[in-house]
Write a structure and sequence with these properties.
homotetramer; 352 residues; alpha+beta; Chorismate synthase, AroC fold; five-stranded antiparallel sheet; 7 helices; globular
Chain lengths: 352, 352, 352, 352
C-alpha cells in the first residue's frame, strides 16, 4: 500500500486505522503566507463527524483536529502541515466476534487476500473514519481556493429512490440528509429511520457543483480534470460510479443535442459538465456519484469465516444507514484538493 | 501538460498530434525476457484503426506500428519500448476553415484557453488519434497479462438508445459495432448509417469485463483499483462517466440486496463489480462507461470565433458517427495497463 | 514545498519544525506481516538523539517515538505507519534575537526568499531535527532489509582533518565520534572539545558500507542506484558532496587501473563502489560524503538583517561542533530507504 | 526499468539502445508559445556528437534530430515534444565477440543480473549514446531558461591529472577537450592521444557553473536543489561523485571559514556553491563531478564469460579515451532540466 498519497503539487498523505491511536494527514505544497487556523478546518470536520443527527451513527468522535506543523503565527509557512485527530471512542471489543468472519460488502475479505493480515477492529484502514483525514486536508485546499473565488458544494440528490425535485442551496446544511430539496429531505429522513429500525440501509446519489473555476485547468492526455476528479471520487469507499454533466444520459443523445453551442455570452448549455477535452471550460463543473447502501446491516447474511466455513453474520455496531449525508463533505474535500492542485500545475506550465 | 504519462511500475508516455509527423508511446517497466513482436501489437492496432467498416471514418491510416527499442531477438529486454506510428493520411488543409472557430463539443476552446496556442489541424493533441498510442502500449500490457491468465474484453452494450439483450462474446468482433448481441448490432448499424446521412451522431455505453484477476490488487486508500480504472477511462476523450457492478442502480438498492454474500464456493452475486474496498475480489471485474455522441457533426451549429464573433459552423471531415466501436480496443488497452501495473505494485508490496 | 516525500514503493513523508509541536513521518508501502515494535525503532532514534556525549548538543529531546498506525498485534499490516515524536525541550525564546537576522551558513536567507515567511525558531523546518523523522522511517526499512540479509553501517572516516588509519567496525559505536579507528577517535574528540571552547566548528567525511545487496538493483537510466543514493545523501542538510568507490581519485586513474576485473570468484577490486551502470554488482556498496562544519558558531560573523542593514551575529545556542557523529545514523537511514525501495522496484519489474 | 523518466513539471522520458533503430526523448510540460526549432536543438547535439576531433570516437552519427510533435508553426504548443535521432552508423557485428563476456567497467554483468537478458550491441541501453536524448531535452530546457536570463556552462577542469590553472570561459568551445585553460588543454590533448595509442584511457573532473538563478529554488526536505542536481549528474554513466562549492575541502575547514558571511552587497564568499538548505541563494551555483576513465580499453583485461569461465578481453571498437569533452554538454543538459523544472515547481508553490 503505497497508495496513501494523493495529488502532485498540492499533495496529501493520510494514515490511521479506525480503532488505532489516531488518524491524520500531511499536506504538502501549501501556498505560504496564507491565514489558516484550526477553527477554520474544524468547521469542515464537524460536517463529517458522527452523531450529528438521528440519521448518523452515534459513535462519539469529537474529531477535534490539531495542526502539528506547517503554520507559524497563524499563517502557512509553505512547509508540510500535519493535521491529527486522536481516536477517542474506540471500542475494539465490539468487533471481537467478527474478527474471523468476512462481512458482506466490507473489505474484510479483500484486505485479507491482499495483505495476509488484517486489523479487523472497525474495518481498520478500510473504515470510513479514514475520510476524516481527507476532510482536514480538503479544508486547507478550500482555504486556498477561496482566495481564487472558487466555491464547491455537494448535496444529496437522491436517497433510497427519493429524488430532489427542487434545488435550493441554502437548505442543504439545514436538513439532516444534506438534500437540496427540503420536502424530499423530510421523506429521506423518514426512510432512513425506518431502514435503521429494520436493520437495513440504502444508497443514493450525491451531486457536486464547482463554481468560479478558470478555464484551462486539466492536463491532457491522462491527467484530465475529469479523470482526476473521477479517481478522487472513486477512491472514496462507498462510491461506485461517477458521471459528468449529462452523464449516462449522453448515451441517448444525438451530437446535435449534446454539443454545447456558444454565443457571444458563452456556452448555451452545459451537457459537458464544465469540462471538455479534459480541460475546464470556465462553466460550472457538475458531476454526480452513486453511493452504495451501507454494507453494515444488522439483518442476517450469509458469509464464510477465515477457514472457509459457511456462517451467518449480523453486523451489530454503530453505523449510518445511509452514507450520503456524511460523504458530502468528503466529496467536497476531494474536489477541493483536485481543483487547487490543478491551479498549481497550470501555474507551473505557464510560468516564465 | 505534464499529463502524458500514465502508470507507476508499468508506465506509458505518449506523444503526437493528429496531423503531425507521428504519434507514439514509450512503455517503461516491461518485464524482461517476454516474447513480443510487432505483429502481436498490430492485431490490436487494426481493431482501432479507421476505415474498418461502413460505420467508421474512411480516413486511411494503416496504423502500421514499428518498435524502435526495448526488444532484442524477439524478446523484451526490460528497457523502454518506443512504439511509433507515422501519420500517413494528413490533410491539414481540410481544417483551414475552422482554425479560428471553436467547434461545439470539441476541445478547441479549452486548448486555446489553457495553452494560448492551438494546433488546430484535426484537433491536434485532442484528437482521438492519440489513442492509437494507448492501444499500442495496451498490447504490451496484454501480452504480460496473458501469462497471468488474465483476459479483458469490452463491447458496445448500448448505442443510440438500442441496448443489447443477449450476451455472446463470440459475436463481438464479428459485427461492425462490436456489440454483444447480433440482432441489436444490426439495428445499431442501421441507426448509425442513418445518422451519418443526416450529419448527426449518437452516443452509447461500452461494458468491460476483466477475468482471471487474482484477489488482492489495488492500493488503498487513493490508488484503489476502481479509482485507477475510473481515471484511466475518463482520460479517454469521449467518455463522460463510469460505473462498477450494479453502478448507479445501487442508489435504488438496500444493503441487504447490494451486499455480495458468500458461501463456501465464493461470492453469490457480484454487485460490487469485482472490487471491494478498492481491491479485487477475484471475481470478474465489470464496469460500464458512457460514450458521448461524436462532437463532429455536419449539421450547422452556433459558435464563436477567436475574436468572440458569433458564427455558424458545420464540421466537414472524416468522422465516426458513433465512437463506441473504435473506443472498445482503447478501453481494453487502458484496462490492461491498469491491471498489469497493479500486479507489479502488489509484487513490490509483498516482496521479501 | 511538495518535496517532503521520498521513495517510490517504500515511501516516507515527513513533517515538523524544530520548535513546533512534533516531528514525524508516514511510511507507506511497508511489507505486511513483519514483526515491528517501538523498541526496535527507538534503538536507532537513540543513536541520533542529542546529549549522547561531550561532543553533542545538550538539548534534551528524549526522542521517544510512538507508532500511531500501521501495525497490529506487533506486526506491520501493509497500511501506512505514522511514527511521531513530540518536541519536549522547546525554547523558542532563545531564538528571538535572531528572528530578523540571517545566520551565515544557515537557511534563514534562502527560506525567506523562497517562502516569504519563515519560522525562525531553531531553523524551523531546516533544522537537523527534521532528520529524526528520517531515522524513524529508516529503522522500518532496516527491519525489512534484515530479512534479506542486508546490513548497512556508516562511520566518521575523517573529522577536522584527522583521518582514521585503521578500520574496526566494532569500535564505531563505542566512541563518541563514531569513528572506525579508536586512536583517531580520541584525537577527534579532543579537537571537537577544543573547537567548542573556541566557539568554532569543523567538518568531516562519513563513509558508508552496504553489504549483502543482491546484484541487479537500480533503475537505469535516471533512477540508477548511485543516483538515488546521491540524492538521498545530498538531501541531508550538512552534506555537500558524495563519491562512490574510488570516487574523485578516479580522475587520476587510467582505465586499466579503475576497471574492476573479474575472475571465477568475482570482482578482483571494487573501484566502482559496488555499482556499475547504476546497478548493484553484488559487491559491497561503498560511498563517502563530506559533512560541512556546523554553521552555528558563537564567534562573531558578518551578516545582514531583513531590512538589509549590516549586522554582526554570534549564534548562541545548543549545537554540535561537528555533525559527523549524529549524522551517521541519518546516512544509514537514508541508505536503508533507498536499498529496500529498490528491492521492491526490482520485484515489480521481474514479477510474472 | 521504470527509471527512464526524469523531472516533475518539466519531464523527459528517453528510449533507445546504442545499436537499435533510434534513440529519442519525449519532453512534457514545456511552456507553450515559445519559439523553438530543430536548428536550435541541433547546436547542442553537435557539441555531444562523436567524431568532433582527434580525441573523440570516430563513430559517425550525424545525430540529426527531428521534432515529431509538440511544436506548431515554430512555437511550442504545451503538448509533449518527441525528438528523435535515427542510428545511422550501426555495426552490431563489431560486438559479436563480446556477447558472452562481461567487459570490465561496463554494465554487461549488471544488466545480465538485473534483466536476465542483454542487448550486447554496443552496450545497448547502457551506452553513452543514450545521453544524446538527454542533450536534446536539455536544449528545450535551455531555451526556456534563456528567457529567464539563466546561463549554464560546464568545462573540463582536470583531465588525467592535468588541472586547469586559469579560467577563461571563451576558450572552452575552442579546444578539443573543452577545458577552461588553453595551455592545460594542449597538454590534455597530448595525453589523451598518447593513451589512445597505448590502448588506455583516463578520467577527469568537470565543473559546472549556473548563473542568473533566482534565489528560492529547491524543495526541502528531500527535493533540495543540490540533491536533485546530484541525482541528475550521478545518473550519467561515467560520473562517480559530485561536490558543491568548497565540496570535499569542507572536511578540512572550520565553521568560521566555511560559512558565507554577508554584507549589504550580498554574500562575501560562495563556499556553499550557491545552495544553502537545499535552496538557491541567488549566487552562482557551482559543482564539480568526477568522470571515471573510459571502461573500453584495448589492453587486455581479466574477466569471465556468461558460463563463469575465466577469460581475457580487449575491447576493440570506437571509443573516447576520455569522456570529459563529450560529457560536458550532457552535464549542462541535465542541469538545464533540473533548474527549469524547479522554476516551474516554485511557480506552483507560490501561485495564487
Amino acid at each position: 500500500m503505497a497508495g496513501s498519497t494523493f495529488g502532485e503539487r498540492l499533495k496529501m498523505t493520510t494514515f490511521g486505522e479506525s480503532h488505532g491511536e489516531a488518524v491524520g494527514v500531511i499536506v504538502e505544497g501549501v501556498t505560504p503566507g496564507v491565514e489558516l487556523d484550526e477553527a477554520y478546518i474544524q468547521v469542515q470536520m464537524d460536517r463529517r463527524k458522527p452523531g450529528q443527527s438521528s440519521v448518523t451513527t452515534p459513535r462519539k468522535e469529537y474529531d477535534k483536529i490539531r495542526i502539528l506543523s506547517g503554520t507559524f503565527e497563524g499563517r502557512t509557512t509553505g512547509t508540510p502541515l500535519c493535521i491529527m485527530l486522536n481516536n477517542t471512542d474506540m471500542r475494539p471489543s465490539a468487533y471481537d466476534d467478527i474478527k474471523s468472519m468476512y462481512r458482506p460488502g466490507h473489505a474484510d475479505y479483500t484486505y485479507e487476500k491482499k495483505y495476509g493480515i488484517r486489523d479487523y477492529r472497525g474495518s481498520g484502514r478500510a473504515s470510513g473514519r479514514e475520510t476524516a483525514a481527507r476532510v482536514a486536508a480538503g479544508a486547507v485546499a478550500r482555504r486556498l481556493l477561496e482566495r481564487r473565488g472558487v466555491s464547491i458544494v455537494a448535496y444529496s440528490l437522491e436517497i433510497g429512490g427519493i429524488r430532489c425535485e427542487t434545488f435550493d442551496e441554502n437548505v442543504i446544511e439545514r436538513n439532516a440528509v444534506r438534500a437540496c430539496d427540503p420536502s424530499a429531505a423530510e421523506r429521506m429522513v423518514e426512510l432512513i429511520e425506518r431502514l435503521a429500525a429494520e436493520g437495513n440501509s440504502c444508497g443514493g446519489i450525491v451531486e457536486c457543483r464547482i463554481r468560479g473555476v478558470a478555464p484551462g485547468l486539466g492536463e491532457p492526455v491522462f491527467d484530465k480534470l475529469d479523470a482526476e476528479l473521477a479517481k478522487a471520487m472513486l477512491s472514496i469507499g462507498a462510491i461506485k460510479g461517477i458521471e459528468f454533466g449529462a452523464g449516462f444520459e449522453a448515451a441517448n443523445m444525438r451530437g446535435s443535442e449534446h454539443n454545447d453551442q456558444m454565443d457571444a455570452s458563452g456556452f448555451l448549455t452545459n451537457h459537458a459538465g464544465g469540462i471538455i477535452g479534459g480541460i475546464s471550460t470556465g462553466d460550472e463543473i457538475v458531476f454526480r456519484v452513486v453511493v452504495k447502501p451501507t454494507s453494515s446491516i444488522s439483518s442476517p447474511q450469509r458469509t464464510v469465516d477465515m477457514e472457509g466455513n459457511e456462517r451467518e453474520i449480523a453486523t451489530i455496531g454503530r453505523h449510518d444507514p445511509c452514507i450520503c449525508p456524511r460523504v458530502v463533505p468528503v466529496i467536497e474535500a476531494m474536489a477541493c484538493m483536485v481543483i487547487e492542485d490543478h491551479y498549481k500545475r497550470q501555474a507551473a506550465l505557464l510560468d516564465e
